User: Fold this.
Amino acid sequence: MTLYLKYRPRNLDELDLPDVGESLKKIVSKKAIPHAFLFAGPKGTGKTSAARILAKIINCEDLRKDSVPCDKCKQCTSITNGNNLDVIEMDAASHRGIDDVRVLRDAVKLAPVSAKKKIYIIDEAHMLTTEASNALLKTLEEPPEHVVFILATTNPEKLIETIRSRTTYIPFRKATTDEIVKSLKRVVAGERIKIEDATLAVIAEASDGSFRDGIKILEQLVAEEKDLTKEFLEEFLFKKKAFDLDKFIELLIKKDTKSLIEEIGKLSVKGVAIDTFLVALLKKLQTSLLAKVGIGTDEVEELDRKSLIGLIELFSEASEKISTSPIEELPLEIAVIKWCEKETEDRLQFTRLKGNSTPVETSQTLPSGAREQSRDIQARKEDLAQTEDPGARKQTAVALGDEVNDDVWRNILALIKPLNASIEALLRAARPMSYDGKVLTLGVFYKFHKERLEDAPHRKVLEDAVAKVLKSPTKIVCTLVEPPPKKIVVEAKAETVLTEGKDADIIKAAEEIFGT
Assistant:
């Protein structure tokens, strides 16, 4: 007998999901047991086991006061063995038509052979056709007194609403690692298998929240006489030694397109499935993202929240496309190229902060495939700048608003910096011009800064911060103005023209955010 069947829970206390056991205990303790149940949840979480336990509780000939079946009477033993004539298990995946349900409707009218009640366990109930579901509906509404239905499904949303509304809903969920380890320990103890808890945790991680899958993995490892050590199983189950996630993420941070594509090529050579690699990568990025909001430990501190979300979206999209791609690696390669060539325009714009009129230096830092595109982008931007409304550049020098003095402005910058350093860096190239109690007009020195500040996410952060400082809901309006006169300092050694004061701080912040 397979280990999963051998160690199937026998009563509600042994159910691997304790919250399901508690719900069913409360229901059966009322003595008025509902005529129809809906067990819904992921595969391998104990739905069929719970259905059989419920059948034993209903039909046990010597039921204890605490609703625990005796497991010794004829009804209990036959249900456990799966040969009870009054407990009928039906697979809706292979009996999904209206004719099958008509046969069932005729059969429910018959009295039980020897049990108190007839129990119909319909597995994968969502596979019933619409016609079959409607045919079953009348029986669910007014079943004979001697019948109880237990519908089990992994997709309850596919059941018609009228069926769901006529059943007692019991939700099942994916198991946690600790819950699966606890389940595996019961098997390990019964089979006298020598294995460490850390190794069981590796098996639990590979089972993806399924108790059944966890036991099956353990059974296969024992049958094949595999080395039951943590290190071996990590390689066997996840092929973790076949790829280096930390190195891959480091290359993502550097946006080294060529090296990343080469690493993807190595995965195929080593026999690593791309979807397996993506799952491991997404889990690591997810851990870091959750840490950014205060949950867990951050393992990728170099990436901010926005970058992590961008990467997760790109790789999730790639994961979905793998199954339909003619080349397995292609969706991942496209995602990597998109990431590495993202914000090319941002880098080009920030060269203006250093006084460069052409993007020669920046283009050298870009991936070779993007350099030509970068030059075209820069040329288009210069053309636009020439056709720009000249009146926008002829505005008067930046003047502080009546209520937004230097101290208030510094408070706004100080509040924004820990929320979003890039916005604070952009605001260093801007000054408040006027404030009428509802609208704060900012004079912005550079077109790029103005466009970034007007982006919806940036505008929302900025308006929230300003509203807190000014203690009033405030709308932000950005207008393009001439930068204030700069003091020029010439460094003899490098013969490079630099700006002093706060503009130097802008450059430093921009370099930290976007790279040099």
